[in-house]
């Protein structure tokens, strides 16, 4: 852990607990600004500086107040949707940031880019979709586990399930998650953290969420997901961040992964994770994994194609025609180079990413 990371952690601790942050006059603000922007942690750093009596840079103050305005608009939309669902008798469960923000000393410390709400998929077409349109929202793309909506630049993600079905190991245990998440609130937040950590990386604010939720921290629901070892290592990392415990190789590694990831992870990590998942599915056979990946890139599954072409849900016999359309138009979509790189990543897998995950208590167990 370098000096910039240490001071940023100290500022976050100051935000949460009103301690006085460590700070040096020669603090590298240029490096820190890059980290703060990539992780969207303006609120945490703003409060940390303020609590420590340190002058707040103009760029940070401006960004914080702009984000405050956007957050309030986003929260209002989340409240509007929940009230409308309640009045219409629609079952739903708010997820992640919309719940966690109120556990912070100030909700403005918690960055949010969207509102996440779990719905019952059976209610979507007949009840929920018409309501969203009536409220002035614009329907976006449908992914494996989410239905995207937008209004005034604000994003709403309606979850069909809390974990994507392509996270096969977790999904096997959790399913759509409707009953599971109500019994295992903390386990859900932790599983979401673990999923992103191993799939593409995870941002600082998500680790801070686990500190804010420390009174609710429990292993319940994690053992069957094989996350109990990772849980112990993350808890030790939180103790290093916020209780001044000594760092070791594992807690240093988790800290470095979090800092290097950014709010939305890293493409490099995503590529390594995808290669490892495909190798696991092929029992470690690289040729088989590359061949299957190549085939799926040309002929995605029916479920994947429905996300891109919703009409297939009503007219599934059109699937071959959409495959042909995909083959013809793919060269103009700019994805060929990316797909080739992803396929090569399988051949280039040297086992190091698997070792990195194993060292902190993670794996893809399918």
Structure described in brief:
It is built from 18 helices and five strands. It has 366 residues and is an alpha+beta fold.
Q: From N to C, what is the helix and strand string?
A: HHHHEHEHEEEHHHHHHHHHHHH
Number of strands: 5
Spatial sequence of strands, sheet with the most strands: 1-2-5-4-3
Strand coverage percent: 5-15%
* Secondary structure: helix percent: 55-70%
Sheet/helix structural class:
alpha+beta
What's the end-to-end separation, in Å? Answer: 33 Å
**Overall geometry:** globular
| Radius of gyration, CA atoms, in whole angstroms | 22 Å
Give unreliable regions as ranges.
none
Characterize the main sheet. 5 strands, mixed
Mean pLDDT: 92
- H/I helix tally: 18
What does this molecule look like?
This protein has 366 residues and is α+β, with helices and mostly antiparallel strands. Helix content is 58%, strand content 7%. The protein is globular and about 65 Å long. The two termini are 33 Å apart.
């Amino acid at each position: 852990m370098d000096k910039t990371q240490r001071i940023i952690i100290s500022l976050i601790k100051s935000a949460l607990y009103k301690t006085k942050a460590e700070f040096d006059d020669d603090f590298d603000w240029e490096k820190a600004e890059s980290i703060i922007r990539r992780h969207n942690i303006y609120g945490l750093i703003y409060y940390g500086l303020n609590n420590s009596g340190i002058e707040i840079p103009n760029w940070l103050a401006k960004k914080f107040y702009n984000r405050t305005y956007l957050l309030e608009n986003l929260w209002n939309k989340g409240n509007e949707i929940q009230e409308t669902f309640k009045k219409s008798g629609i079952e739903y469960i708010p997820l992640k940031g919309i719940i966690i923000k109120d556990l912070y000393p100030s909700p403005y410390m918690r960055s949010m880019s969207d509102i996440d709400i779990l719905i019952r998929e059976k209610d979507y077409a007949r009840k929920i979709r018409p309501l969203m349109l009536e409220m002035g929202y614009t329907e976006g793309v449908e992914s494996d586990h989410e239905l995207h909506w937008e209004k005034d630049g604000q994003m709403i993600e309606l979850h069909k399930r809390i974990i994507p079905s392509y996270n096969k190991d977790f999904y096997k245990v959790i399913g759509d998650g409707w009953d599971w998440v109500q019994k295992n609130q903390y386990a859900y937040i932790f599983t979401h953290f673990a999923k992103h950590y191993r799939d593409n990386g995870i941002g600082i604010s998500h680790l801070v969420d686990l500190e804010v939720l420390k009174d609710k921290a429990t292993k319940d629901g994690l053992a069957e997901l094989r996350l109990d070892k990772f849980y112990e290592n993350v808890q030790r990392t939180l103790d290093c961040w916020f209780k001044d415990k000594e760092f070791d190789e594992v807690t240093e590694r988790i800290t470095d992964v979090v800092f290097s990831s950014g709010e939305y992870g890293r493409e490099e990590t995503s590529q390594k994770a995808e290669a490892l998942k495909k190798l696991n599915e092929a029992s470690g056979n690289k040729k088989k994994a590359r061949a299957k990946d190549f085939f799926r890139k040309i002929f995605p599954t029916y479920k994947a194609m429905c996300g891109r072409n919703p009409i297939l849900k009503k007219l599934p016999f059109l699937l071959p025609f959409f495959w042909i359309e995909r083959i013809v138009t793919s060269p103009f979509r700019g994805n060929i180079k990316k797909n080739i790189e992803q396929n090569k990543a399988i051949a280039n897998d040297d086992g190091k990413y698997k070792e990195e995950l194993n060292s902190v208590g993670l794996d893809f167990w399918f």
